[in-house]
Design a protein that fits this description.
Aminopeptidase; 31% helix; 7 strands; seven-stranded mixed β-sheet; alpha+beta
Length: 153
């Protein structure tokens, strides 16, 4: 397995990852390639978007880190980063998230971010445990989401 920056050519594969997560009930909606390009790969607030690729080239998961600006959809503090981790359920528990986070953390440091927020559904025990293991701590609630903070520096 290897990590690498997401490219436009990955849009369909990333969409497949989101669809697999949606089909098992761990995501509220699926995502087509156009949404992936707009919201993850070409987002002007993107700090990084990294894929984990299997030896056969299959995208097993990805992580997105964006800069939070005023009026953001997350209601997160301006100037922070906001992170999202998406791993195929069929590839869970292989250390993919941890390896992706190492790349995102380095990018956050290089971008001068001081804090990162992750919003996780309060009923998503696996994701909550992952972010806790990475060093995130709950600091607020947003609707049905727990918002976790990671201090970068």
């Amino acid at each position: 397995m290897k990590t690498r920056p997401a490219t436009l050519a990955d849009a369909d594969a990333i969409s497949d990852v989101l669809d697999e997560i949606f089909r098992v009930g761990k995501r509220a909606s699926a995502g087509d390639a156009a949404m992936v390009r707009e919201f993850y790969i070409e987002d002007p607030d993107r700090v990084c978007c990294t894929v984990m690729e299997a030896d056969d080239g299959c995208v097993l998961g990805f992580q997105s880190l964006k800069l939070v600006r005023a009026g953001n959809i997350y209601n997160a503090p301006v100037g922070w980063g906001v992170i999202g981790t998406h791993i195929r359920p069929s590839a869970a528990r292989l250390g993919i998230g941890k390896r992706l986070f190492a790349v995102s953390l380095k990018a956050a440091q290089e971008a001068g971010l001081k804090d990162i927020e992750a919003q996780i559904g309060a009923d998503n025990g696996e994701a909550l445990a992952f972010y806790e293991a990475m060093g995130f701590h709950t600091y607020r609630y947003e609707d049905t989401n727990m918002c976790k903070q990671f201090k970068v520096g």
